[in-house]
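sorry for the late reply, my laptop died twice this morning and i had to redo everyting from scratch. anyway the thing you sent over, i finally got around to it. pasting the sequence first so we're on the same page, its 395 residues, then the predicted structure underneath. double check i copied it right bc i was rushing
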Amino acid sequence: MPSPQGLPLAGLRIVELGHYIAAPFATRLLADLGAEVIKVEPPEGDPVRGWGSTVEGHAVWFSVHGRNKLSVTLDLKKEADKDRLRQLVRRADGLVENFRPGQLERYGLGPDALHAVNPRLIIARISGYGQDGPYRDKPAFGAIGEAMGGLRHLTANPGQADLPPPRCGVSISDDLAGMYAAMGLVSACWQVKGNPEARGRVIDVDLVSSVFSLMEGMLPEYGLFGWVRQPQGAAIKTAAPTNTYPCADGKWLCIAGNSDLIFRRLMAAIGRPEAAADPRFATNGLRCEHVAELDAMIADWTRTLPAAEAEAVLERAEVPCSRLYDMRDCAEDPHFRARDMVMPVEDPLLGRVLHPAAPFRFDGVAPRDMVRWTGPAAGAHNRHVFEELLKEGEG
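ok and here's the structure:
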């Protein structure tokens, strides 16, 4: 397989017992960073291989979701395949799993059993509610993490109490938990590194806590004052004008004009310089008090222009702004292309496909070099791993 030259996790070996989203997302990040990730799938493959659009039966999403990973298939209900997993664990630095709590133990592969094979193994466990607590055994998917972690309450639009608050459009709680699991695993590997006496650790990450960690100052505000932050829609309660405004072509323009200097530039750009001199708008605090009037003023201007034209006007005035991009906008944007944030990649299963770049840059490594191969077919690396890596073919 292509070597992860110049990447910081080259030489780190991770076993993934992941399905659906959270654990595979964690290991995708680790693999993008150069780790050797061995994804262990059931014989029928990760269920996510059946999600979304397909090309000749191959899921398009999995091209990204499984990239840079070695795929092997094992049936963990069979003792011979459990033995193979133990052999992998013996040679690994870490393992990431996202079974429901207790499932790994029911396989006879809980942390005690794995540490008996490899005492230095770092085990990252991702679940809905965590490995303990009264809710540990309840089933959960990403939407539940959003709901219970406090995020879904905030995505409502004020004045639309008859409509359910929308999800953000992606599996944000799974992705967050995956990021935290990857961070925790690398941190624990650093602690073990270079210390021959160090022992492995177990990392407990859950969807609810991952979302809850993003709630900024809301918990101390509640504890001190009894405040419960309510949905703000597209605005920000503590800054003005910062909102999303309708344009003549039915698109939306996000504008952040909340510093005093930028506010003056914004008012000049929309033909309302007198508003910048109005004492009611002299400071951010005062603008927050009169935000409805300001938002109406800005919206009256944005409605007269298509979003791209309004954006161009404000960019010339150095006012932070952006159209609300859809995927076509992202894929075709010159900045995305120039920074290789959108990359054409040859996928043996799909043909030429677009991949998002890894979200980190390292000097000396081109973004394209971080995508070493695309998501493989289930079990594509059985022979390489079981016969070469484990040297099962030797008498």
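The mean pLDDT is 96.
thats about all i looked at so far, will dig more tmrw
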